Amino acid sequence: MAYFFVFQNKTYMEEQSGGFLWAPKMNKDGKTFSHWSLMTSVKKGDVIFNSYNGKMLSVIIAQEDCKEAHKPDSFDTEALWEKDGWMVKAKYIPIEHPLIYKEHMSEILKLQGAKYAPYNSLGRGNTGYLFQVTDELADFFISKLGIANITENQGIEETIFKEIEDEVSLIPEETIREQIVQTRIGQVKFKQRLMRLECKCKLCGLENLSFLRASHSKPWRDSDNYERLDKYNGFLFCPAHDALYDKGYISFDEGGSLLISPLLDEHTQMLMNIDRRMRVTLLSGHQKYVKYHRENIFRENIELNEVGE
Ligand SMILES: [Zn+2]
Hints:
There is one protein chain. By secondary structure, the chain is an alpha+beta fold. It folds into two domains: 3-132, Roll (ph1033 like fold); 156-307, no CATH class. It contains ten helices and eleven strands. The strands form three sheets. Strands 1, 2, 3, 4, 5, 6 and 7 form a seven-stranded mixed β-sheet that branches. Strands 8-9 form a two-stranded antiparallel sheet. A two-stranded antiparallel ribbon has the order 10-11. A hairpin with a 3-residue loop joins strand 3 and strand 4. The longest helix has 24 residues, at 174-197. The protein is elongated, with a radius of gyration of 23 Å. Zinc ion is lined by residues 201, 203-204, 206, 237-238, 241.
């Protein structure tokens, strides 16, 4: 799944009411631009953040891959463009409290990529239609939308999951829907909660947020809605330690001492910055989840189950 950014200052109303994105292949002089031809990269299920007069009014979900299509009739006032173009059928999901890009420009400039980015270094929108959005910037947008639309009070898990489900309910494929919910929105919210407890790798102390990952002790697939976002159900880890914990090559005993699977040889342990003497502090809230990890995820033995238990 990919993320994009679209400037729709002139055409938002037509595109939104028609349920599509459209860009010409070339202008009247026969010139084409990357911000138009990028349309051909949009695939079914991709997410496009919209900008209309400096605000995100909608999150747009592509309903099918990009295809060739003539300029829509509703665009006829725009004489600058040739008739041949690219179209993506799309669902517009309106945002209750539109995000004002100017207010977040320093983060946006930090997180947007170097190539085909929507804003120039001064924070002005680049001239053009469609631009690329990095995963990091998409995470940022999604987390901002979450915060703007959710208040902290009782029943927050239900609120969040209802909201996530509403957001993606229009995507026809269950697999794409699940992918968005699980790997993006849910992970962002879970990471935010873990950050309230501690903002570094639980094992080695790495503090750079761009590399920290949120790792569940009791996996998402086995957890109920409360457990999925419970700040005690996991830790922030650097990429190496996240991979080891996620795949069960390491775990912790009740006292927080590191357990290392016999499947992990000494050389790999060294290269992945693992040491038998490592210890972490576990809070009482962590215990039941770490116990679950120890008993169900941790590879305590040399793969007994692979030879048929
Ligand atoms: Zn680490």
